[in-house]
Write a structure and sequence with these properties.
alpha/beta, 6-stranded parallel beta sheet, 9% strand
């Protein structure tokens, strides 16, 4: 874990793209008698939001009752949650779980959070209202794909991980570059300085990654169909009915919620939601896999392997 980080508590990380089987593997780890009692820390930028259960594939109440879960349902959808917030919360939880004699198991698909925790994160520049206004004006005139192309010129690493229409994150990355002259990606580096600079790398980073993309696509489609059958549209309608949420909030820009909101706004027929939601989820999974491939320390398990869960549990048992 590095000689400069002797006091960082030990934890195990389990990552993977959406629908790769992380929840099932995490529960299997928690049930294995060879492994110390586990507490799960969610590494997911969507699960933090209350009232967003179906579209985030949030662990069920029964699953959460079986093993303690953290960083789920901690903020309201009108509020924002950042990588820096995650690092602060995760460090506190890892220390508290370790002090209880339990194993912190960090599970999720928000790779920026994993990287920020492991490598450290520097304090990024605060938003500049004038810069934001200029960027919004440019976007209104040119479109967000053009702004994405502009970002690719100054920060190709960040641009590669963002969809061309991800206005919120493209805008933030461009704001950081204008304010600091540095790419956003440079703020997530082990050599950064600041209160959260020193990283806490995992004892092991296990990664469930499909070698067969068609297998993952089938699972994504099946999951989205299950969400629709479980009342996803009604969930989004209830969020809209609150009256204090809007389409540009980070919560409502989560995959699935964004497409449902746009359909309910009448931007396109609701009958297209399934196709658009599945396509957007596939794009998310592709970005997640790109992130994972930038983490050479990970231990890869083929997600579609018949014994994938058993492989994950065995690796954890060997470390625990």
């Amino acid at each position: 874990m590095g000689t400069d980080r002797p006091t960082a508590p030990r934890y195990i990380a389990l990552a993977g793209p959406t629908a790769s089987g992380k929840t099932a593997a995490a529960l299997a780890i928690a049930r294995d008698p060879r492994i110390a009692p586990v507490e799960i820390v969610s590494v997911d930028s969507a699960l933090v939001y209350r009232g967003m259960d179906i579209g985030t594939a949030k662990p069920t109440r029964e699953e959460q009752a079986e093993v303690p879960h953290h960083l789920i349902d901690i903020i309201d959808p009108r509020d924002a949650y950042s990588a820096a917030s995650f690092v602060k919360d995760a460090r506190r939880l890892i220390a508290e779980i370790s002090a209880r004699g339990r194993l912190p198991l960090l599970v999720g698909g928000t790779m920026l959070y994993f990287k920020a925790l492991a490598d450290g994160i520097d304090a990024m520049p605060a938003a500049d209202p004038e810069v934001r206004r200029r960027l919004e004006a440019d976007a209104a005139a040119l479109g967000w794909p053009a702004m994405h192309a502009r970002l690719a010129e100054v920060d190709p690493v960040a641009a590669a991980r963002l969809a061309p229409n991800d206005s919120q994150r493209i805008q933030r990355a461009l704001e950081v570059w204008h304010a600091s002259g540095r790419p956003l990606s440079s703020f997530h580096a082990s050599g950064a300085s600041g209160a959260l600079a020193k990283g806490w790398p995992a004892a092991a980073l296990l990664s469930l990654e499909p070698t067969d993309r068609a297998w993952l696509h089938e699972r994504i489609a099946a999951r989205f169909d299950a969400m629709l059958s479980s009342g996803f549209i009604a969930e989004v309608q209830a969020l809209r009915a609150r009256g204090d949420l809007h389409a540009d909030l980070p919560s409502m820009r989560c995959v699935g919620y964004r497409q449902a909101w746009e359909a309910l706004d009448g931007r396109w027929p609701l009958t297209e939601l399934r196709e658009r939601g599945i396509v957007a989820t596939r794009q998310l999974a592709k970005r997640q896999i790109t992130w994972l491939r930038s983490m050479p320390q990970r231990r890869v398990i083929a997600a579609e392997a018949a014994d994938a869960v058993a492989q994950v549990v065995q690796q954890v048992a060997a470390l625990a």
